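Quiz preparation item.
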């Protein structure tokens, strides 16, 4: 097994993908809108990925946050609200908002589990800051780190009850980024003391089963490498100060922020860079076959520590409970009452 999560090109596994995946045995997969058609098709795709891996618990990820970041959409799947909506409710009725966020995440988890998707890249623990780029925007719960932590906890708990693994992101915090890391390398010049605010939600949810790094340069911690590529940040801040000791994946290798870093000229260099920095898993999302083959050729076997963290994460959720409709109705009633 190699320490990579791979995307796919379309709605089924191609012959070339099947051969590559058999040869390199990626640790898991991630789905996007290009991979989604109908519920039956998605279930068939996830079933085929499990059969190919020979692992009933192989991680199959998706970004189903609600709002504008949702791979599953009507008419086959319901709309879910953006995280900011729960932040707005929290300002009026904190306990009610947390209950609504928990019900919402449980509904998400049940919906995904029915499709054979077992990891949702949620919740965002990015604390909204002045000048924040809209790539985060309403995906953030808000500006109060304690509120972000509380709603993040409720969301994580809901996903667990819905049968899905949750992923906290973007550790150690994307809230101060003024550029979109898909297109550029955001640089945060806040002091270490100022950055303590950003760490609060991640510290409070340091027991989360998985986390995803931020492709952001924090000059107070490392003037050369962004968090995903920084041994210093991963060792001293993520593993040390935050205390996160579970599965750590990079954000997408295809984002241009990594291309602007030393060693970022090749996809293989980006993949080895994040693993050597201390990430357990390199995430490659595009489904570009040549890039996946390059990543597979560059990476060695997954480390024993990373494999143990992966197994522990996949054992985290409980059997799905509830129905999407009833849970969504409970969420809506709670939000209306806040």
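Solution:
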């Amino acid at each position: 097994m190699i320490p990579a999560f791979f995307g796919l090109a379309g709605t089924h596994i191609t012959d070339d993908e099947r051969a590559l995946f058999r040869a390199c045995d990626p640790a898991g997969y991630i789905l996007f809108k290009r991979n989604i058609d109908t519920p039956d098709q998605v279930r068939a795709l996830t079933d085929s990925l499990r059969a190919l891996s020979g692992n009933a618990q192989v991680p199959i990820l998706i970004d189903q946050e609600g709002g504008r970041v949702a791979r599953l959409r009507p008419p086959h799947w319901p709309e879910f609200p953006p995280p900011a909506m729960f932040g707005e409710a929290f300002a009026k009725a904190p306990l009610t908002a947390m209950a609504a966020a928990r019900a919402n995440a449980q509904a998400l988890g049940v919906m995904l589990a029915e499709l054979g998707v077992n990891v949702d890249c949620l919740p965002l623990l990015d604390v909204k800051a002045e000048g924040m780029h809209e790539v985060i925007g309403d995906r953030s719960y808000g500006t109060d780190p304690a509120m972000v932590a509380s709603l993040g906890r409720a969301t994580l708990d809901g996903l667990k009850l819905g049968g899905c693994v949750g992923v906290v992101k973007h550790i150690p915090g994307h809230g101060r980024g003024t550029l979109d890391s898909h297109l550029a390398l955001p640089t945060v010049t806040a002091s270490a003391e100022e950055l303590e605010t950003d760490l609060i939600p991640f510290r409070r949810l340091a027991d989360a089963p998985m986390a995803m790094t931020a492709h952001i340069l924090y000059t107070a911690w490392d003037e050369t490498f962004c968090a995903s590529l920084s041994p210093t940040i991963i060792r001293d801040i993520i593993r040390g100060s935050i205390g996160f000791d579970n599965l750590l994946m990079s954000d997408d290798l295809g984002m241009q922020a990594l291309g602007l870093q030393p060693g970022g000229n090749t996809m293989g260099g980006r993949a080895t860079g994040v693993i050597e920095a201390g990430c357990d898993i390199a995430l490659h999302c595009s489904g570009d076959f040549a890039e996946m083959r390059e990543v597979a050729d560059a990476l060695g076997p997954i480390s024993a520590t990373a494999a143990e963290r992966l197994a522990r994460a996949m054992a985290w959720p409980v059997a799905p409970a509830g129905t999407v409709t009833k849970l969504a109705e409970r969420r809506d009633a709670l939000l209306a009452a806040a």
